[in-house]
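Worked problem 6 (solution included).
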Amino acid sequence: MKKKISFKLFVTVLWRGICQVIQPVAKLFGYKGEGTLSRIIWRTFATCLTLVLLVFTVALVYAVANEVYREWIRPNTSECVYDTNHLSNHLVYQNFYYRNKGRIYDEARDKVVMDDVDWVVVSDDMDSLAVFSKNDKRGYLDRFSGEVVLPAVYSKAWVFSEGLAAVEKDNRLVFINRHGEVVIDNGLEVYWDEASYTFHGGYCIVESPVDGKSGLIDRQGNWSLQPEYDEIHHVKGLWRVMKDGMYGLFSEKLDTMFAVEYPNIRIWENFMEVRFPDHTARQFDLKGNILVDFVIDEVVDIYYETTEQRYNEAGEYMGEVMAVAKCQRYEVRGYDNDEYYGLIARNGKRITPPEYKSIEAIAEDLYLCKPQGIILNGKGEWVK
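Solution. The predicted structure is:
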């Protein structure tokens, strides 16, 4: 009759086995095992090692069981095991929840077109070719049929745009056509901070291999905008550039709308706001026509301390009574807390340009303006 092995028996046998192994090894180093203290030390060490082995065993069993459950059991028992991303009307990419891989599946034919796929990306303009990754290599497939048009041989690849796609080949950034033929090879390099290499209106943002500055190339690979900018962004069909901390703007056809001499240019849905060197701001439509000649983001009252004292019901002094100054303070906001303030009359007439970082009222019609540290009256005159 077989004896049932309990957890207690397992631990006891493991502990005794460790004791039997450790004692001969310890004797090689002069350990004699005589005396109560020696036995306590020996058994304590054996107990600690037993606990370490138990923790390691439990962790190993858990890891193996979790891997088996995640990879084999749960995907075959769960009702929802993947996210579905449609590549076309009937072709989908199924990204499995419990695996690092996905698959391309044809819903119309109920057939797996490609398995063990890392990811698939369709271009914003819904080009017929989608870029996919398999075994950390990139290629292109027809998103309607699932047929691999260009095999996964590239270390890096981006979506097709306007008939061209950027790929990394032999550690260089090149552009290929739909047949996989290299049509642009100017010795460019892949810069990992560039989100994507796509053409917009015939131009693509790339960086110079010499100094990493950004420029625009056309579909023949020629520089249409020289690589001399720190940043280039394509927003609402316009090219927003930054150089040495100053911003400029080009039209879709690279006509200069604003030279690179403005502290900031922000482009919104239907208009843009340009910050001028004198801290003023104006709004334009997306064609460059002026909409608002002088932008004011906020107007607030300014308070000053009077000579009248304030007390609570218990007669305790609570400070000076505050009063509202004659003029108001307006604000023109920039980026990164780069706000500037000016004085404005209550009838809406601007008294000073927005050239101060703070304005405080020190009397009914006197204002301390910083960082210049000057005092102005309600007419904007300097009070000495």
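Discussion: The CA atoms of residues 194 and 206 lie 8 Å apart.
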